[in-house]
Amino acid sequence: MITAIVMIKAEVHRIPEVAEAIAEIEGVSEVYSVTGGVDLVAMVRVRRHEDLAVVIPGRVNKVPGVISSDTHISFQAYSRHDLESAFAIGW
User: Fold this and answer.
1) 41 — alpha (psi -120 to 50), left (phi > 0) or beta?
2) Alpha-carbon torsion 52, 57, 63, 69, what sign?
3) Mind listing the UniProt keywords for this protein, alphabetically (predicted)?
4) Do the domain assignments include residue 57?
5) Which domain holds residue 74?
């Protein structure tokens, strides 16, 4: 599974509807409204790199109200859950 973190700038008055529209796109697992230099962060999870082109520039960037996006592709996930399962001793 390939994970991409997509930072999205949106028209301020349309943030809620933009977030809801992006959340409905196949391949988008979560959308967060955030503070800082962007308005939304979307988590995209797909099976193939080619699918990123379909989801992000093909769908996410075409949602009315999206101004721009910046995509970061994940190499590896590190989380407390992953570390706990890696070091579990069968409890």
Assistant:
1) beta
2) positive
3) DNA-binding
4) yes
5) 2-86
